[in-house]
């Protein structure tokens, strides 16, 4: 979103869309030729909020505002995005340029861009994630980014914002779904692990590098599982970056111990499957990363030696992604190595489960957040059914809308 106020144009997040065909150039926002962007506030590091930032820097030499962990994690994720999709319009020099043009700011400290004042509050979503509280032209705008109200193993959750808010821009990811109680989900995951290990199998967790890898490592550490836990892929570096900013974590010592509890896989991937084990590997939606090669290895082990392994997703997979295909069609999609090659679908004969350790507010968290804040107007964004959410809020007496892409709203 571009906020225009007091003669400034400020981007609230600058993401790219992760699509079924990796991140294509079509996954980029389309801005009119005449656009300029004077500054950008990035709520958190996930690519759907940050992946367009180097392009803003390339086009407009935009300065950025974000927390310190977000800066570290954005740098990791955008470099990886460029590796996965070389067609992205920006290059290494734009990523470095963005890094240099970033002002890092802590939570709860007011800053200004021209006459627009803003502060960041802990969003409880991933390390460094922020909700953006803006005061401009005598109005107060509150943008949630992605947020989680309740605490998790990794983060403390949010502090409910106080005072009158004119416009709330809220994410709608789980507007229609309740989260099962976290402790029950954790118990089901641990039970599945124990069952699988007992029958001599391995448990593969295809996991997002940022946030979920750390959360899962902490859940596993708490339950003292009697089997080696391996970590492979970008989750390692993401955890190291996260540990550099202990102030942004609920219990950094606990994360450090959980991370030390993990065995890092080097070049020899076979080391992870010598005995019944747990493997945490990127990517969370099976769109790349070592998780795919582990999935194929475990599938072969089942066919050749009847080793009965399991795959557990702890994060949501967008429709059409590799993770979605495995959960819904029981296949592993292999993309062609060369341009013009064929996509292969390999049938997978393994138990596949979805046990969400979600980092988003669930339906009841969203509604109680809104009721406590009681904003004058609500703008619903970032969900599968923003319109349905806005309609429901209207039925409950709120003024709510779900704008289309490209729509302008005057406040
Ligand atoms: Zn996010
Ligand atoms: Zn998001």
Explain the overall architecture.
The structure is a single chain. With 411 residues, the protein is an alpha/beta fold. The chain has 2 domains: 2-177 and 359-401, Metallo-beta-lactamase, Chain A; 182-354, Rossmann fold (3-Layer(aba) Sandwich). The chain has 12 helices and 20 strands. It has helices spanning 47-50, 53-60, 68-84, 92-100, 182-198, 212-222, 235-243, 252-260, 291-305, 322-329, 363-373, 386-395; strands spanning 2-5, 8-12, 39-41, 64-66, 102-104, 111-113, 116-122, 130-136, 139-143, 167-171, 203-206, 229-232, 263-264, 278-281, 310-313, 331-334, 344-347, 351-354, 377-381, 400-401. The strands form 4 sheets. It has a 7-stranded mixed sheet, with helices on one face. The protein has a 6-stranded parallel sheet with strand order 13-12-14-11-15-18. A 5-stranded mixed sheet has the order 1-2-3-4-5. A hairpin with a 2-residue loop joins strand 8 and strand 9. Helix 2 crosses helix 4, helix 3 (68-84) runs antiparallel to helix 4 (92-100) and helix 6 (212-222) crosses helix 8. The longest helix is centred in the N-terminal third of the chain and has 17 residues, at 68-84. It is globular, with a radius of gyration of 21 Å. The two termini are 14 Å apart. Bound molecules: zinc ion (2 copies). One zinc ion binds at residues 46, 48-49, 146, 382. Residues 44, 46, 125, 146 line the site of one zinc ion.
């Amino acid at each position: 979103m571009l906020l225009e106020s007091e003669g400034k144009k400020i981007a609230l997040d600058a993401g790219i869309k992760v699509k079924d065909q990796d991140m294509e150039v079509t996954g980029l926002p389309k801005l009119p030729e005449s656009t300029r962007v004077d500054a950008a506030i990035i709520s958190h590091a996930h690519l759907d909020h940050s992946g367009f930032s180097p392009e803003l820097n390339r086009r407009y030499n935009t300065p950025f505002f974000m927390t310190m962990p977000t800066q570290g994690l954005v740098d990791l994720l955008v470099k990886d995005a460029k590796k996965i999709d070389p067609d992205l319009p920006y290059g290494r020099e734009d990523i470095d340029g963005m890094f240099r043009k970033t002002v890092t700011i802590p939570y709860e400290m007011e800053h200004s861009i021209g006459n627009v004042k803003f502060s960041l509050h802990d969003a409880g979503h991933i390390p460094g994630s922020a909700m953006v509280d803006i005061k401009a032209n005598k109005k107060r705008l509150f943008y949630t980014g992605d947020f989680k109200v309740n605490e998790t193993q990794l983060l403390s959750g949010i502090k409910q914002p106080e005072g009158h808010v004119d416009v709330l821009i809220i994410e709608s990811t789980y507007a229609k779904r309740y989260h099962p109680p976290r402790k029950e989900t954790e118990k089901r995951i641990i039970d599945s692990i124990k069952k699988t290990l007992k029958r001599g199998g391995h448990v593969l967790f295809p996991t997002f590098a940022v946030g979920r890898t750390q959360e899962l490592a902490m859940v596993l550490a708490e339950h003292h599982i009697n089997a080696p836990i391996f970590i492979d892929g970008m989750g390692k570096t993401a955890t190291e970056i996260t540990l550099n900013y202990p102030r942004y974590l609920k219990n950094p010592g606990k994360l450090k111990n959980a991370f030390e509890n993990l065995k890092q896989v080097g070049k020899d991937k076979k080391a992870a499957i010598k005995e019944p084990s747990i493997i945490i590997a990127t990517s969370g939606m099976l769109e790349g990363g070592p998780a795919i090669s582990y999935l194929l290895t475990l599938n072969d082990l089942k066919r050749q030696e009847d080793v009965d392994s399991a795959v557990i997703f702890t994060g949501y997979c967008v429709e059409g992604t590799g993770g979605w295909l495995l959960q819904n069609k029981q296949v592993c999609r292999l993309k062609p190595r060369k341009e013009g090659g064929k996509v292969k679908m390999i049938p997978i004969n393994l138990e596949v489960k979805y046990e969400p350790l979600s980092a988003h507010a669930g339906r009841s968290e969203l509604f109680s957040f809104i009721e406590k804040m009681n904003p004058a107007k609500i703008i619903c964004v970032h969900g599968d059914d923003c319109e349905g959410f806005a309609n429901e809020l209207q039925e409950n007496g709120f003024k709510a809308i779900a704008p289309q892409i490209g729509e302008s709203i005057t406040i």
